[in-house]
């Protein structure tokens, strides 16, 4: 450790605990000194400080030592008294205020980083005025009676040579009633060393007179104690001094020119020698002498064992003495005072050993006397002596602590002493690098004034910063505490300084509660000082405080607006965090060759459009490079990266604002900041980035200054939006900029006005630049695509398209005619229109003739309807790209109208995308074609649910029973079922019931279900099976009308909308597995029904429901039917009855089938179960056809049959005759007749179902081509029931 | 009475801080908790002071102020628990017991798969459990 004398405390002690010289002077002396600009003391001050006095000193011990540094403290006699508390307070406050004003310039700079703070050396970091302040604080308790080191050691009596009767003056000056109370009330020895100084002003001449007085003085006061001091030898008063001797002693006066202007070198030399003489020849020897005398005296009375005992005994006796707060009064002659004086003198002469031993001696006495203040003072000095001796740190600390707590104990009178003691103690700890303990001491120093506490707390905080390890958090905390106290004392600048220090701790931490508090208060205080820029900067930090309570947020916001109002102007804040802009959500919509009919269309993913437009526009790669490469000379290279937009067409920027607060805020005048340059920049792309940034900054500034857009309106127009946001709300705002002339446009940022007073600016570019920097490290060559830079080209035609009355919500199956209307507002004609629709199942393009015909009626069957158009339509439906006729060119006057067919195919939400391609007439443009993208969202509600069940008719070949179930799934809508149609020529549909019974109410109201039965016939098979073909012509209709009494014709399902939609439905409803035989497609057409009367007034809506691929065949490839008589009359008395039957078997598969018919004489029990199982297993939801189509009796029969085991006792009423098994092969699509015969023994109704058909495919190729489905290659069929009534012939 | 309970993450970021006073002294308690982290750091970095037991999680009295006593607890994942109490005579055993239960509650809270480590604890269950523990602390010391 360093020499204690070189530490801060050591220097402080060497400065402070030094002999005091009381100066007494006449007013004329003072007057002479005033000529130089200062008082006598000030004049002498530089010379009473000796850096190398080199005086041998011999105190109590015999060993002399040399004193190097020595200092005298000079005080006027009137000042040697306890200072006035109030005045001292004022002075302390002054010190603080002064220092606060001094570093106001620093307040504007950014607070230093905490890391760099630590790195700075101690001296720089801790404000230097603390030292002054501490000194002033210590001086407050100067000249106390219980301490001797402030007691004057000597008295310097100065009289001017001009004074009349100088000898008398000398005597008068030392008159007792002028002397300080210390001397008078007996606290110190009034017999004091006196030194007589005759001050002679050389300007007054008369040196001879002065010498005369001096000799007089010498005779009167003794030769050694008198001296003549000549000053003001310089006559012109322009004496320059190389080093300013007085500067460091009178800090408050900086201009040193006139000080000492009348003192020439001789004068200064004389001053120096006078003071040197005074201290080395008088004061020090005097002190030495006194020390020796006192030491002897004390040794005699107090040292030694006997004296100790006696002393103790004597002290004990005084125990009963009444307690006095200050302890008993010790006069200078008391032994205690003498010991104290001895100690203090020894201390002042650096004989710390002697001082310590005396202090120790007296401290017990004081303690026993309960003279606490004295005791504490002695303890304090002991601590300091220990420190200066640099031994026993523990003792030193113990003494200081003891002194400190004792001072505190004696109440308010000791408070200031405690402060001084604390400051010394803390300095001592700091000197030993025990910063943490020092901080604790500073913290404990009593603050009678909040201001003092504030300074102490601040000092404590620096201790925490200096301690190892650094206790940053405590540093911050104490700074905050100190700042609060400063603020309480109206020391705002200091408060800001401390808070800023604290901010460096809390910056970047997640302790937002504290950080907000600090920021907010700094901001408030800056505003208080009128430094609004700084204030706003700090308050801005706390504005987006979503985590705070609502009240706090309101407080912050209110304060912010108050500050803004005080500034009196609208502020522009570059990074206003209210509202917060969500950056990734910014979306830019602009139109180059792609144009959008609506905003909804622009929000659709680009890839979706691209895939839709793929085969419509010139191929993608060509498109990308084509116009760019061909226009290379016109376009600078860099615009490859920038986007293209058209003059007069708006660029839309979507920005999402988020209100982080819980309180509502209102935002007005939200608009974009844009930069437009009319000419292409010719600089290279590398330098370009920098150049643009530079320009942006300028532009931003210009905009900020003017705050108006008047300059820019000729180049582009901006939209302005006002929004008000509720707490925590996020609002998506669409801002537009419309460039007016060609050039390049850059969207720089966005600006808004918060609550009509603050303008917030957010610069998009800065964020992009940031990214650029980070990205640039990786690939410096690659310029990052800047999507806010646009190349504005001259205006182009832009088609506007709309579909009239496009429904938002429809019921499934709704069939409508819509009109697409295309307009071209510009003069330039466009051509080569093409169109594509994403969902042809929902929307298809109609023929233009449809425009002219009336909608629902045109769907009905016309007399002259040609069936040939079906094929064409199907071909057209296959390709979804529609090319408008060549003649279609749209000019500005006539909008193009084109009909579209719309059908809500399935329930659910659907997005329809339509894109229209067109080319410009004008070939010179950069863009030769454009696309119009339209997007519609549609919700389709479920309406009718239609399902069909078909089952082959057991009695006839190629006839099917069809059951249609219709359920109205809507909540309120009613439908009128109009017609059911089968698609295709080969089918013919007949209603089984009368029309009236189908729907007695004519309408199907919501929730209602309806079932009806149809017979379906296959005409082709009929023809091939050589049935009578005559019926085909008469009854062969694929449509069945389900409404009675409707005079209007049937809907023609073979014309354009139906057949086209049906095509798409078929594609959509494609089934994976296809069984043997054909499938059938049904179209159910219904109309909306809204009451009996209203139905006429409103246009009827037509609904079509397409059900495709209804399986008509069962699983087996064969069909058969039993033919024979239904009733036979026979006389059983004669013989048994033989009935001849024939079975027609038809092979509906494409393979050769081998069929075996096995007749059984018993009823197979398990068959009904297995067949049912096999049917239901493969065809979910289908009913066992035999059960359904036949009368209920059969099911009972089957049921009872199933219950019975094959019993031997129940004899069948008939037997099969002939072979029990017949096998034959059937060619594809051919039929065969098998004769059968039964013998009946008794009359009754017979069920001839006890036969089984076994079939298997015998085609050679069946293993190869049936890989796709689980096609069964063989199977078993249970016979159909066939009832024959045999009656007894009468 | 327990005034404040805090959970501080290993980067000294506040994870959970809950005061149990009616007064509006959140800022003060924040400061106290924040400051006590310095002491925690000091204890951790000077193992000779932390006593003979190596794996001791209980840090003891950190920070006696005029009105409060601050106790600390350090988990193995360097998460700190800070307890601020106004009781001036608290038995260490009580505090230990409190921290043990509090630790259990914390472990349960962060074991939630939806909890993001290092983020604030927002679990309501945790808050309820903690306040129950805090209440029971007052009771047990009163008995």
UniProtKB/TrEMBL annotation, chain A:
GO terms for cellular component: TRAPPIII protein complex. Residues 606-819 form the TPPC8 first Ig-like domain. Pfam families: Ig_TPPC8_1st (PF24545), Ig_TPPC8_C (PF24542), TRAPPC-Trs85 (PF12739). It comes from the Eukaryota. InterPro entries: Ig_TPPC8_1st, Ig_TPPC8_C, TPR-like_helical_dom_sf, TRAPP_III_complex_Trs85. Residues 1121-1250 form the TPPC8 C-terminal Ig-like domain. PANTHER family: TRAFFICKING PROTEIN PARTICLE COMPLEX SUBUNIT 8, TRANSPORT PROTEIN TRAPP. This is Trafficking protein particle complex subunit 8.
UniProtKB/TrEMBL annotation, chain B:
Transmembrane segments: none annotated. It is found in: Endoplasmic reticulum; Golgi apparatus, cis-Golgi network; Golgi apparatus. The keyword Signal does not apply. Coiled coil: none annotated. The keyword Transport applies. GO terms for biological process: endoplasmic reticulum to Golgi vesicle-mediated transport. Part of the multisubunit transport protein particle (TRAPP) complex. Belongs to the TRAPP small subunits family. Sedlin subfamily. This is Trafficking protein particle complex subunit.
């Amino acid at each position: 450790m360093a020499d204690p004398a070189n530490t801060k405390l050591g220097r402080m002690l060497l400065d402070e605990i030094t002999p005091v010289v009381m100066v007494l002077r006449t007013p004329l002396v003072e007057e002479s000194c005033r000529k130089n600009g200062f008082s006598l003391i000030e004049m002498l001050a530089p010379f009473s400080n000796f850096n190398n006095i080199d005086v041998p000193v011999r105190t109590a011990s015999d060993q002399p030592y040399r004193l190097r540094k020595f200092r005298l403290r000079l005080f006027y006699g009137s000042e040697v008294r306890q200072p006035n508390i109030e005045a001292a307070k004022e002075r302390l406050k002054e010190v603080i205020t002064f220092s606060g004003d001094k570093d106001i310039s620093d307040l504007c700079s950014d607070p230093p980083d905490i890391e760099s703070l630590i790195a700075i050396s101690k001296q720089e970091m801790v404000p230097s005025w603390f030292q002054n302040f501490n000194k002033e604080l210590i001086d407050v308790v100067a000249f106390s009676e219980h301490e001797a080191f402030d007691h004057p050691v000597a008295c310097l009596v100065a009289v001017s040579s001009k004074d009349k009767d100088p000898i008398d003056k000398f005597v008068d000056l030392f008159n007792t009633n002028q002397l300080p109370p210390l001397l008078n009330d007996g606290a110190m020895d009034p017999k004091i060393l006196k030194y007589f100084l005759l001050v002679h002003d050389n300007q007054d001449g008369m040196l001879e007179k002065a010498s005369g007085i001096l000799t007089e003085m010498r005779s009167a006061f003794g030769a050694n104690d008198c001296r003549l001091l000549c000053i003001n030898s310089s006559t012109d008063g322009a004496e320059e001094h190389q080093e300013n001797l007085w500067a460091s002693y009178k800090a408050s006066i900086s201009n040193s020119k006139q000080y000492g202007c009348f003192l020439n070198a001789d004068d200064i030399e004389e001053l120096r020698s006078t003071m040197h003489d005074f201290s080395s020849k008088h004061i020090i020897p005097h002190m030495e002498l006194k020390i020796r005398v006192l030491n002897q005296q004390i040794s005699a009375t107090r040292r030694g064992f006997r004296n100790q005992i006696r002393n103790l005994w004597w002290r004990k006796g005084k125990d009963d003495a009444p307690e006095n707060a200050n302890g008993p009064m010790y006069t200078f002659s008391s032994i205690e005072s003498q010991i104290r004086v001895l100690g203090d003198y020894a201390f002042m002469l650096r004989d710390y050993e002697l001082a310590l031993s005396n202090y120790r001696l007296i401290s017990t006495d004081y303690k026993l006397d309960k003279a606490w203040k004295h005791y504490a003072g002695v303890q304090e000095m002991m601590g300091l002596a220990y420190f200066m001796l640099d031994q026993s740190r523990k003792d030193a600390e113990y003494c200081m602590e003891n002194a400190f707590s004792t001072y505190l104990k004696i109440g308010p009178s000791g408070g200031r002493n405690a402060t001084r003691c604390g400051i010394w103690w803390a300095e001592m700890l700091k000197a030993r690098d025990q910063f943490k303990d020092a901080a604790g001491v500073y913290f404990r120093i009593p603050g009678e004034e909040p201001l003092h506490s504030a300074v102490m707390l601040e000092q404590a905080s620096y201790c925490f910063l200096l301690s190892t390890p650094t206790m940053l958090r405590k540093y911050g905390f104490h700074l905050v505490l100190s700042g609060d106290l400063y603020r309480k004392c109206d020391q705002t600048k200091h408060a800001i300084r401390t808070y800023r220090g604290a901010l460096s701790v809390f910056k970047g931490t997640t302790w937002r509660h504290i950080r907000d508090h600090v920021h907010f208060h700094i901001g408030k205080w800056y505003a208080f000082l009128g430094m609004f820029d700084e204030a706003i900067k700090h308050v801005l930090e706390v504005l987006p405080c979503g985590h705070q309570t609502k009240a706090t947020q309101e407080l912050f916001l209110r304060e912010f607006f108050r500050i803004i109002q005080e500034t009196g102007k609208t502020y522009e804040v570059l990074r206003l965090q209210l509202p917060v802009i969500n950056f990734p959500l910014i979306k830019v919509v602009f139109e180059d060759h792609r144009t959008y009919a609506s905003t909804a269309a622009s929000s659709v993913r680009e890839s979706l459009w691209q895939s839709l437009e793929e085969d419509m526009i010139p191929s993608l790669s060509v498109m990308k490079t084509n116009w760019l490469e061909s226009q290379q000379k016109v376009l600078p290279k860099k615009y490859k990266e920038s986007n293209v937009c058209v003059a007069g067409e708006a660029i839309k920027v979507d920005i999402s604002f988020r209100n982080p607060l819980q309180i509502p805020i209102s935002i007005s005048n939200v608009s974009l900041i844009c930069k437009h340059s009319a000419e292409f920049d010719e600089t290279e792309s590398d330098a370009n980035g920098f150049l643009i940034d530079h320009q942006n900054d300028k532009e931003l500034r210009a905009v900020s200054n003017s705050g108006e857009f008047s300059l820019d309106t000729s180049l582009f127009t901006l939209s302005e939006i006002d929004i008000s946001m509720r707490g925590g709300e996020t609002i998506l705002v669409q801002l537009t900029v419309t460039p007016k002339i060609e050039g390049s446009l850059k969207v720089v940022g966005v600006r808004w006005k918060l609550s009509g007073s603050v303008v917030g600016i957010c610069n998009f570019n800065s964020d992009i630049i940031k990214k650029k920097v980070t990205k640039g490290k990786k690939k410096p060559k690659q310029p990052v695509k800047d999507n806010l830079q646009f190349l504005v080209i001259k205006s182009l035609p832009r088609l506007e398209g709309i579909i009239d009355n496009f429904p938002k919500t429809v019921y499934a199956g709704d069939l409508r005619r819509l009109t697409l209307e295309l307009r071209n507002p510009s003069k330039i004609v466009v051509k080569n229109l093409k169109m594509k629709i994403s969902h042809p199942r929902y929307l298809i393009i109609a023929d233009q003739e449809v425009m002219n015909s009336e909608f629902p009626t045109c769907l009905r069957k016309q007399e002259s309807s040609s069936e040939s158009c079906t094929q064409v339509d199907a071909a057209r439906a296959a390709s979804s790209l529609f090319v408008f006729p060549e003649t279609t060119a749209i000019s500005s006057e006539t909008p193009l109208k084109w009909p579209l067919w719309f059908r809500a195919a399935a329930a659910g939400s659907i997005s329809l995308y339509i894109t229209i391609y067109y080319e410009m007439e004008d070939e010179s443009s950069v863009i030769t074609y454009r696309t119009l993208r339209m997007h519609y969202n549609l919700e389709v509600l479920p309406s009718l649910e239609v399902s069909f069940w078909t089952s082959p008719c057991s009695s006839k070949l190629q006839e099917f029973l069809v059951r249609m179930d219709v359920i109205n799934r809507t909540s309120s809508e009613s439908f009128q079922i109009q017609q059911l149609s089968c698609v295709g020529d080969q089918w013919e549909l007949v209603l089984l019931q009368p029309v009236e019974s189908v729907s007695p109410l004519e309408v199907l109201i919501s929730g209602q279900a309806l079932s009806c039965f149809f017979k379906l016939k296959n005409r082709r098979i009929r023809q091939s099976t050589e049935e009578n073909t005559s019926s085909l012509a008469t009854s062969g209709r694929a449509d069945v009308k389900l409404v009675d009494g409707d005079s209007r014709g049937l809907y023609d399902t073979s014309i354009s909308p139906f057949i086209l939609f049906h095509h798409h439905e078929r594609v959509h409803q494609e089934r994976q597995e296809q069984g043997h035989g054909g499938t059938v497609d049904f179209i159910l057409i219904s109309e909306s029904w809204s009451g009996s009367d209203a139905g006429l007034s409103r246009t009827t809506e037509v609904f079509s429901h397409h059900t495709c691929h209804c399986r008509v065949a069962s699983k087996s490839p064969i069909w058969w039917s039993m033919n024979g008589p239904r009733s036979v009359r026979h006389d059983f008395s004669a013989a048994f009855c033989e009935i001849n039957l024939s079975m027609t078997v038809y092979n509906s598969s494409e393979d050769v089938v081998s069929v075996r018919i096995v007749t059984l004489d018993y009823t197979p029990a398990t068959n009904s179960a297995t067949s049912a199982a096999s049917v239901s297993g493969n065809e979910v939801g289908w009913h066992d056809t035999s059960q359904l189509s036949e009368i209920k009796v059969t099911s009972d029969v089957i049921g009872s049959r199933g219950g019975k085991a094959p019993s031997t006792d129940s004899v069948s009423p008939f037997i099969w005759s002939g072979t029990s098994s017949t096998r034959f092969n059937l060619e594809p699509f051919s039929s065969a007749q098998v004769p059968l015969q039964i013998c009946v023994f008794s009359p009754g109704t017979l069920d001839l179902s006890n036969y089984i058909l076994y079939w298997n495919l015998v085609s050679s190729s069946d293993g190869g081509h049936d890989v796709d489905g689980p096609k069964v290659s063989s199977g078993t069929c249970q016979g159909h029931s066939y009832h024959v009534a045999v009656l007894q012939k009468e | 009475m327990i005034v404040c309970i805090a959970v501080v993450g290993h980067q000294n970021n506040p994870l959970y801080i809950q005061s149990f006073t009616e007064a509006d002294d959140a800022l003060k308690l924040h400061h106290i908790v924040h400051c006590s982290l310095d002491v925690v750091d000091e204890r951790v970095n000077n193992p000779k002071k932390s006593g003979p037991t190596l794996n001791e999680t209980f840090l003891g009295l950190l920070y006696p102020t005029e009105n409060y006593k601050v106790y600390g607890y350090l988990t193995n994942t360097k998460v700190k628990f800070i307890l601020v109490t106004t009781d001036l005579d608290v038995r260490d055993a009580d505090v230990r017991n409190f921290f043990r239960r509090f630790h259990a509650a914390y472990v349960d809270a962060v074991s939630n798969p939806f909890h993001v480590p290092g983020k604030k604890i927002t679990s309501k269950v945790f808050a309820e459990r903690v306040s129950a523990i805090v209440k029971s602390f007052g009771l047990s010391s009163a008995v």
